[in-house]
Design a protein that fits this description.
Length: 134
């Protein structure tokens, strides 16, 4: 069901500093910061030859990544995003097999303008999984 790794997301306390580290120190192709108010984050995408890195920092007081950064103040890997062709079929298959979909269970529009869902990390070895319909 899952296809390519779309991105690995890293929660960071200082988005500008992290973006500059990827640009200057690691020599990566770093995009502009984008606010995602529906998701409570500001993101920067870094394009690598085979995948992307998503740097995330909280936007607003009730950001869903605030607690993660409280536990990991210097930042850390927050989620992995896998591509799927049909997100509703993927959701139904996952729920049939007992995996928990976060939130209402209805896809939201993600940072690339495509539908996304998140799967409970306790069902996947401690790793929060994002599915993005391509
Ligand atoms: Co993501």
């Amino acid at each position: 069901m899952i296809g390519r790794l779309n991105h690995v997301a890293i929660a960071v306390p200082d988005l500008a500093a992290a973006a500059e580290q990827y640009r200057g120190t690691l020599g990566a192709s770093v995009g502009p910061a984008q606010d995602e108010p529906d998701h409570g984050v500001t993101v920067v995408f870094i394009q690598l030859p085979n995948t992307k890195i998503e740097l995330l920092t909280p936007l607003g007081a009730d950001s869903p990544i605030r607690g993660f950064l409280d536990k990991n103040p210097s930042g850390g890997i927050h989620h992995m995003c896998y591509e799927v062709e049909d997100i509703l079929a993927a959701r139904d298959q996952l729920q049939t097999r007992g995996a928990r979909v976060l939130g209402s269970g209805e896809p939201k529009i993600g940072a690339h303008g495509k539908p996304v869902l998140f799967l409970h990390p306790k069902d996947f070895n401690g790793c929060l999984i994002e599915l993005e319909q391509i």
